[in-house]
Amino acid sequence: MRIGAVDAELAALYHGPRAGSAPAYERVKHLIVSQINAGRWQEGDQLPSENQLVDALGLSRMTINRALRELAADGMVVRLMGVGTFVAARKSASSLFEVRNIADEIHQRGHRHRTEVVYVREEDVDPANSLIRESLRGKVFHSLMVHFEDETPIQVEDRFVNPAEVPRYPDQDFTRQTPNHYLGVEAPLARGEHVVEAILAAPDECRLLHIERSEPCLVIRRRTWSSRGLVSAARLVHPGSRSRLEGAFGTR
């Protein structure tokens, strides 16, 4: 649903007696958040454009841009380059202490999962690739794909797979099943490790995720082994404004 132009009621709210003395960009943020919390603007709705907000509220483009940037950093809205600004869904939760299928996580939230495959190919092991250089030699399978929750990209999956463990990996249709599911069946997990970091994504990853270069991301570098050896090494990039990682430990 597209919200469209800012109406007179919103302009009145911004300039009214309850507006307070906070900086202009903070008042714009408060105005937008109040509309979202009141249910007037709902998940997936497209906000008025920067130009519409500038014209209706009588503010500078710099002020409006700052308000929207900070709301995106807070996870309240999602900004898609060349498309617009949308009310964000609640942040997607991904497991931190276990290896789970992203499709299952999305379905459990009541949303639709789909995958866009950029490529699946065989290539030489790059000696500079710290994920796999200590474990693999010669050829490796390399796949790059994007996972969507409904129509929002929430993860870039950049994965290297050991051909000795799963020789039919390139032949699979990963729009029908995820690599995680396929690898779990073909080479059951014996152990795994992962590292989580905050990063700025590479330009190609920003393009695939429809985010700006300045948006912080979370990256998981994950390696998994079967009882015979290394199966897979993956770099999983999540936009910070759309994702959170969670886990539990200890006994109940």
Task: Describe this structure as you would to a colleague.
It is elongated, with a radius of gyration of 22 Å. The strands form three sheets. It has a six-stranded antiparallel sheet with strand order 4-5-6-9-8-7. Strands 1-2 form a two-stranded antiparallel sheet. A two-stranded parallel ribbon has the order 3-10. Mean pLDDT is 82; it is low at 1-5, 93-97 and 248-252. It has 252 residues and is of the alpha+beta class. It is built from seven helices and ten strands. The chain folds into two domains: 8-87, Winged helix-like DNA-binding domain superfamily/Winged helix DNA-binding domain (Arc Repressor Mutant, subunit A), CATH 1.10.10; 92-246, Chorismate lyase (3-Layer(aba) Sandwich).
Helices, by number, come to 7
> Rounded to an integer, what's the Rg over CA atoms?
22 Å
Going by CATH, the architecture of the largest domain would be 3-Layer(aba) Sandwich
**Pairing-aware structural class of the strands and helices?**
alpha+beta
Order of helices and strands: HHHHEEEHEEEHEHEEE
User: What is the count of structural domains?
Assistant: 2
Q: How much is the average pLDDT?
A: 82
Mind summarizing the main beta sheet? 6 strands, antiparallel
Whole-Å distance between the termini?
Answer: 44 Å
Name the strands of the widest sheet in spatial order: 4-5-6-9-8-7
Helical proportion?
25-40%
CATH topology term of the largest domain: Chorismate lyase
CATH class of the largest domain: Alpha Beta
Strand content: 25-35%
Strand tally is: 10
Low-confidence stretches: 1-5, 93-97, 248-252
Morphology: elongated
